[in-house]
Amino acid sequence: MCLLLYLAFTGSRALWDPGESRYADLSRAILDSGDWLVPRLNGVLYFEKPPLGYWLNALAMKVFGINEFAVRFVTAVSGLLGIFGLYWWASRVFSRRIALLSAAILATSAGYFAWSQIPELDMLFSLFLCGGLALFYLGFENKFRPFLSMHLAYFLIGLACLVKGIVAWGFPFIIISVYLTVTRQWKRWREFYPASGILLTLVSGGWWFVAVNAVQPDFFNFFFVGEHLQRFATKKHSRTGQFWYFIPVVAGMFFPWTAALVPALRAVWAELKRLSKPFVFMAVWVLVIFGIFSLSGSKRPPYMVPVLPPLAVLLAWWFDSKWNDAKGLFGWFSVPYAVLSVLVGAGMFIALPRIKYMDPALSVNCFWPAFFLMLSGALVWFYGKRQNAPETFRAVFLCALMFIAAAYTEAGKLDPLLSRKAMAKLIMAEYQPGDRIISFNAFWERNMQSMSFYTGRRVSVVGSRGELEFGAERDAEREKHFPSETDFVNTLRDDSARSFVVAYSEQLPDIERQAGRPLYPAPGKLPGRLVLFSNKPWRN
């Protein structure tokens, strides 16, 4: 079921702006340029993240072609490996049934599935980080070959560093230190093979930083100071939120299993007071990642992906404790679940008119996702009332599968609003060598990155450069690719070159007035505020 669910939809919708398209364009640039060392986004240097995710995506595109399936393949497989890996870990630490329940909960959690279909770096990072932490525990507690487990763990942490940077080294160090302190096992620190392990981590995850700094001396200050220290300590990236920001995020990502969080954590507290080692390790794992990101000045929902696997095990352990004795299941889970499913299902019907208001051309149908939610609520109420824990669990699992499939099918209908794929198709039907594609104050960072991927051409940016600022300042042709508004207007007046321009619709009359010539909107009507036009008539 997981294989079907996670791979069947991988190529079913366009790449949305900004995140999906950003990492797709970075990967495509590797194939176009042949440069595997220095990442480039829209033709300029881009050092916000290390390149392992781009490399794997580029390899997938080399195998499957340049398409949506290839771009999402690595992320989807990472999600699947995380599910199967969690089953293997939980079966060694607890039991086969808890392992099965853990995998089922994680696979059908809406947030985990969603981020396995969004080709950013968080799912791949989570796979390596969680895999490393899990192996550290197995090796230390003699659940699996200690020497092999420890060194595989160090290797995976090194790969995690090549995905998202030195945060991958910080989390394991803090989590293991806190775990040893709480369980009073500091005398066993040598069992982590620190000398050979740290060397392995540095080799597997540190070589690229040395190599790229040798060819780009500005890299160190930008990456380590700007993208790590300033990202954590300041609001530089405008991704702010209150300290409790991630509480509703985690609750939402676990949907529809959210109602089990409170009773499961309540039951886990008793195990923590007894210092039960697996529960202490998982609690420290969750709290350290949750706490550090809560203190950070940069907050995004996918930062919580690495806390979902241990929480899934805790929920599975609670369900397992009710499997043959379902006392309390109805009051603590069935009733809250039924209420939550009805509220969310009703909310989806309320949200539908809002989507229509955004643009009447969008035909999103929320009936089937809402139907499966409400059906699960009725079934959970029915079986919970009869204290039948196995059927209650199966009802949530099967309806969650159907809910996710139905919701994701409808999500593809938002493509015209959230992706520039349709605009790119219109442009490439007319494009000739020497033509230019321009984003005019269209918030390139938020709206236009998919244009670069789908056209395979650079997009000239007029206005805010956003994350391209570092690379733009070092671009030998920055005046051409980052023109001023005056130069942009002069380009429109130039009959020797054709310009395809994306701008907000309300800007078009003023642009036409400044250019002093007629401009030609693309044929057809596309949803949203962005419009595509050219300084020459469209042939088709």
Note down, in words, how this protein is organized:
This protein is mostly helical and 540 residues long. It is 64% helix and 5% strand. α4 (68-93) runs antiparallel to α5 (96-107). The mean pLDDT is 91. The strands form two sheets. Strands 4-3-5-7-6 form a five-stranded mixed beta sheet, covered by helices on one side.
Uncertain regions spanning at least 5 consecutive residues: none
What percent of residues are in strands?
under 5%
What spatial form do the alpha-carbon principal axes imply? Answer: globular
Largest sheet: 5 strands, mixed
- In total, how many beta strands? 7
Number of domains: 3
Which class do the helix and strand fractions yield?
mainly alpha
Radius of gyration: 25 Å
Count of individual helical segments: 26
Give the integer mean of the pLDDT values: 91
What helical percentage do the residues reach? 55-70%
**Alpha-carbon distance between the termini?**
45 Å
Spatial order of the strands forming the largest sheet: 4-3-5-7-6
> What would you call the quaternary organization?
single chain
Topology, please?
Elements (H helix, E strand, L loop, with lengths): L1 H7 L10 H15 L6 E2 L2 E2 L6 H13 L3 H26 L2 H12 L2 H7 L5 H19 L5 H19 L2 H16 L11 H22 L3 H15 L12 H8 L7 H13 L3 H19 L12 H14 L7 H30 L8 H19 L3 H23 L3 H4 L2 H10 L5 E5 L3 H4 L1 H7 L3 E4 L6 H4 L5 H4 L3 H9 L5 E6 L3 H8 L4 E2 L8 E5 L6
Parallel strand pairs: 3-4, 3-5
Antiparallel strand pairs: 1-2, 5-7, 6-7
Helix pairs in contact: 1-4, 2-3, 2-22, 3-4, 4-5, 4-6, 4-7, 5-15, 7-8, 7-9, 8-9, 8-10, 9-14, 13-15, 14-15, 16-17, 17-18, 20-22
